[in-house]
Design brief:
Length: about 450
């Protein structure tokens, strides 16, 4: 509510000050405007506003646009008390203090030397109360001659202190909110940094765990062919030494024939197991797909599939499986055709080895169509055995296979996942039902990221 003022001009001025407060104007500008408003209501008055410091004992100038700057500077840091001029005493007492003659009033005994050189002889000061009757500062009216307040003068401090309290409280609340925002921002940044560090640590642990699992899998997979090769080589060496000993005592034809047969068998075992080890090593190399070693270029997806499918169809026919396609025309991509072809080959091989292991016929359907956000959706579906639900979440893990010992390394889908997510910048999803087949869906950007 606006305090009653002696004129319409004062009321208009109050509204202007309130508008400044509502707009969030700077406190200094609001207080300066308020001082000028009061000065315009009385002749020869010079107004000031002192703000109580956080220590509750000292004050500093908040506004005084018409007072000499040197005088205001001298009041900065003034300690309130029972005889601390008009302003310091008003704040100390919590009531209005009227000093009609600065030169003779005992309240100014220690301070009149600050005011009189600037021609200031009278000072009336009123404390400014905020919420909860907390004193925020004081409002003062100075005159250049000794003067006692008249009836019209007594309403002006009420106007000034009322509007000043609103402005000061609002500014302090905004300052407190800003401090809270800064504190919350600092907390958020600290928590974010902690979460990021924790996430990096989890990723590092996951990578180390994955590396450990991969190394263990490599050792396990290579152990069998290497062990078989070692046994065959050791056996062949023993047979060779025995044959050498028989030569000195006379070698029969039957012994030589038996040695040749055993040597041939050992050689076949060595060849099979070393070839198996070589295939495993080749599979392991594919796990770490490096896009830097892949050629990026623009290509038509239908042309890539036209080159890729003929040899796959030959393998499929040998197993009684038909490969069908449904490719939308005009699908252009700027990506890595080599890794994409490798991923599709692994998916088709996965169907042939696992989906149709126990059936003489079946179908694989490869579809491709444009998707939203300038991406391409490619799917490889089969109507084979499907994947058991407990196994589905682990199909991309290394060495996970439904047919251990059947010739696969269990790395095919792991390689596919690495290619799709790492090189091609897309994602892969699985939809499978046991006994009803599986569908792998690849969502790839038509233009690969840099």
């Amino acid at each position: 509510m606006i305090v009653k003022s002696p004129s319409n001009t004062a009321r208009d001025g109050q509204h202007r000050v309130l508008e400044m407060i509502a707009r969030g104007a700077a406190l200094q500008d609001i207080l300066d405007s308020l001082m000028r408003l009061i000065e315009a209501q009385s002749e020869d008055v010079l107004c000031s506003l002192m703000l109580l410091d956080d220590d509750g004992r000292t004050v500093h100038p908040g506004a005084g646009p018409s007072l000499p700057p040197a005088f205001l500077a001298a009041l900065d840091g003034l300690t309130i008390g029972p005889c601390a001029g008009s302003c310091g005493t008003a704040i100390h007492r919590g009531e209005t203090v009227i000093v009609t003659d600065i030169l003779s009033d005992p309240l100014w005994a220690d301070y009149h030397a600050l005011a009189v050189p600037h021609g200031l002889r009278a000072c009336w000061s009123t404390p400014i109360y905020g919420d909860g009757q907390r004193i925020l500062g004081s409002f003062a009216m100075y005159y250049r001659a000794p003067k006692a307040p008249g009836e019209d003068d007594l309403c002006l401090p009420g106007i000034a202190t009322h509007l000043a309290a609103i402005a000061i409280e609002r500014a302090r609340r905004e300052s407190e909110l800003a401090l809270h925002r800064d504190h919350l921002q600092a907390l958020v940044e600290a928590r974010t940094a902690a979460l990021s560090q924790a996430q990096e640590e989890l990723v590092r642990r996951d990578r180390l765990a994955a590396l450990g699992a991969l190394v263990a899998g490599v050792a396990h997979e290579l152990n069998t062919p290497i062990g078989n090769s070692l046994i065959a080589a050791t056996c062949l060496a023993d047979k060779t030494r025995a044959l050498a000993g028989s030569v000195e005592g006379g070698l029969r034809r039957s012994q030589l024939a038996r040695f040749f047969a055993q040597a041939d068998e050992a050689g076949q075992i060595l060849a099979r197991n070393l070839q198996r080890a070589a295939r495993l090593v080749a599979s392991f190399k594919q796990v770490a797909v490096d896009p830097g070693n892949s050629e990026r270029r623009a290509f038509m997806l239908c042309e890539l599939l036209a080159e890729l499918l003929p040899p796959l169809r030959v393998l499929a026919r040998q197993r009684g499986v038909v490969i069908e396609t449904d490719i939308a025309p005009g699908l252009a991509m700027d990506s890595y055709p080599g890794p994409l072809a490798e991923a599709l080959t692994h998916l088709v091989d996965n169907c042939l080895v696992h989906a149709f292991a126990d059936t003489a016929d079946g179908a694989i359907v490869i579809r491709a169509a444009p998707a939203i956000d300038a991406s391409v959706r490619i799917s490889v579906s089969d109507n084979g055995a499907g994947i058991a639900p407990p196994l589905a979440p682990r199909v991309y893990d290394p060495f996970v296979t439904t047919r251990p010992g059947a010739g696969g390394s269990g790395l095919g889908l792991h390689v596919v996942h690495n290619i799709v997510s790492g090189v091609l910048g897309g994602r892969i999803e699985l939809d499978s039902a046991l006994g009803k087949g599986s569908t792998f869906r690849l969502t790839l950007p038509a233009i690969a990221g840099a």
